[in-house]
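Suppose you are handed only these lines of text.
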Amino acid sequence: MTKHIFVTGGVVSSLGKGLTSASIGMLLERRGLRVRMQKMDPYINVDPGTMSPYQHGEVYVLDDGAETDLDLGHYERFTHAPLNKDCNYTTGKIYLSVIEKERRGDYRGKTVQVIPHITDEIKSCIKKLVAPDVDVVITEIGGTVGDIEGMPYYEAIRQYALDVGRHNCLFVHLTLVPYLKAAGELKTKPTQRSVRDLREIGIQPDVLICRTEKEIPKDECEKIALFCNVEREAVIEERDKEFSIYEVPLSLADNKLDALIVDKLGLTQATPLVMDDWRAMIERMRAPAHEVTIGFVGKYVKHRDAYKSVYESLDHAGIFHNAKVRVMRIESDKLAVDGVEKALAGVDGLLIPGGFDKRGIEGKIAAIKFARETGLPFFGICLGLQCATIEFARHVVGLPEANSTEFNKSTPHPVVCLLEEQQTVTTLGGTQRLGAYPCHLVPGTKARAAFGVDVISERHRHRYEVNNHFRDLLASRGMVFSGASPDGSLVEAIELPDHPWFVGVQSHPEFLSKPTEPHPLFRDFIGASLERRRAKKTEAAARERVAVGV
Ligand code: GLN
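From them, the structure of the protein bound to glutamine can be written out as follows.
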């Protein structure tokens, strides 16, 4: 029988509910349990696909093309739970489905209401993940207890526990225990109040995970237990992690959260917890033997969450190479075309991530020109590939006005243009080329060497592509199309063979990287950047020797 864990949050947002949920998933998986993960977002957008990165951070894309919340990225990096469109619901998506049913007449003349129709819909979405081969479904409820828009979700999970049996469900509440400097004390009142809010709507949490910057003294834990009606062992401290988010599961394991969950849900089939490899990974991360600096030119670099998975993937590649990856974030529209050399002076590699719209494009193109001409390793993702194609067309092929029709509709040389299937698309939401598509790699290329196989599957999110009319011309001047769709009609990867490492992909490899399984292209990009750094150091040392006459 499938058991359920519902993760709710209290006091304030941004407590790291996604990371905590992912960590719980990881601990249970590492106890031999088969886990599924799901997130409910109380906002009205049908999905985050149409939201600005400033509002929502990165849009995380799944194999089936679902555009989802970035917490699903944590789920995939921490667990092996398969994710699909049923793993992320929003109020918009729930209402859309209910309204469609109402229009079809499915409710047979009834008044359609939040209770029971919206709550039933939410419950049916939770049930979708239940299967004979699933031991535990973890459902994270976005937002904070007390938010008006979250109410139907709390009501739905309360009912769900009654439907399937309270003992088959575990309510985990993540809360904040703030430290008041002036008083020199940790305060438990906000936690008490947020649990009171939960209990008012009929949910008694079974486990409290308390985020805190300082160790919570024993008597404070006892106080929380007493006032919140929770067993003492079920008050779990989650101290802030300054070093890495990958420490969270370790600290929860140290506080015996996995044993508590296994016990409370009666998961007798669980095996002993194995974390040695993960612990060893953290130790390696603490003492990297090398260091490398990557120039990262994007539009939303001030917002850490906007490129979440890309930053994580760079870290994963660093772990592989035993190197600390420093990211120098450069705002593309502040990058003056003639200031590139200075801006990129200290970097060992250049990464241009995905993006939309014209703003900052010329800065990106100038940075790519610099990388191409100076042998600086370059990795272009989606828009990054498209900018590299424009740069090559302008400065190598000699088409100074070459552009993408996304940025200049009337360019005489549209080397990047709208995908054919996109020509008639008029609505924004969920209409891009989305999800996993196969790509055939060309033997002898860097892409083929990185993956070690001929056919790969990568996730996509784009409307534009390299214009096939210009392929021969670009190839005649040395650009190699190292990957294409199976019928050859879509360019999936480009590279320059006479450059140390210059690779662009139309897909988003950042959605397929894990800390212990770095994505091959990130791995090789960081490898090439480390190589460049070493070479520069050797060169500098040689110059020094010449200068001092040794
Ligand atoms: N704007 C480009 C396109 O739609 C690139 C998209 C992306 O980088 N995700 O094709």
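What can we learn from it? DSSP finds 18 helices and 23 strands in the chain. The mean pLDDT is 95.
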